[in-house]
Amino acid sequence: MGGRWSGVELEEGVVCVGRGVGGELILVLRRVALQVDKEDRWLWNAETSHVYSVCSAFKLLTIQPPTVSVVSASSIWNKDVPLKVVLFAWRLFRDRLPTKNNLIRRGVITNEVCLCTAGCGSEETSDHLFLHCNIYASI
Questions:
Q1: R_g of the chain computed on alpha carbons
Q2: H helix or E strand, kind and range, residue 8
Q3: Given 78, 90, 114, 136, which is the most exposed site by the fewest CB atoms within 10 A?
Q4: What pLDDT, on a 0 to 100 scale, did the predictor assign at position 18?
């Protein structure tokens, strides 16, 4: 196939998905004009240049209001990732890191010491440390 789709292969692949949704999808895809003389490429819509950078991803994460996201276990538990990284990510996504907020909630420390250790004056939570703290989030 050489990295390009032909209409027949695409249509057959979609039909195998299912008649109801697949039929609708085929109608939508028939209106799309593929440009076979151009290479596919990724576009990062957070930047006008459409070029991805860690800096722009960080800005995108920090300017948006916090959202509750559900992370599936299968996306974290990967045999190719070191176990200590997987465990850290799992604890981060489940809000199980020993932040001051969590330690207060469990009665390990008192409310008087709830502020971030960086001295920025904010409450120490996982979101704050990894996304919003001017000191730690930039590391």
A1: 23
A2: helix 7-17
A3: 78
A4: 43
Over residues 19-45, mean pLDDT: 73
**Is position 111 within any domain?**
yes
H or E element in which residue 21 lies: helix 19-30
- Residue 68 amino acid letter: V
Please tell me the pTM assigned to this model.
Answer: 0.46
pLDDT tens digits, residue range 62-79? 776 655 666 666 666 767
Instruction: Provide the domain limits for residue 78.
Output: 70-132
How far apart CA 100 and CA 111 sit, in angstroms, is 9
CA-CA-CA-CA torsion sign (46, 51, 56, 61):
positive
Within-domain flag for 108: yes
Residue 15 lies in a domain: yes
- Looking from the CA of 127 toward its CB, the CA atoms found within 13 Å total 12
Q: 113: number of CA atoms within 13 Å, CB side? A: 10
Provide CB contacts within 8 A for 91, sequence distance 6+.
97
Let me know if residue 87 belongs to a domain: yes
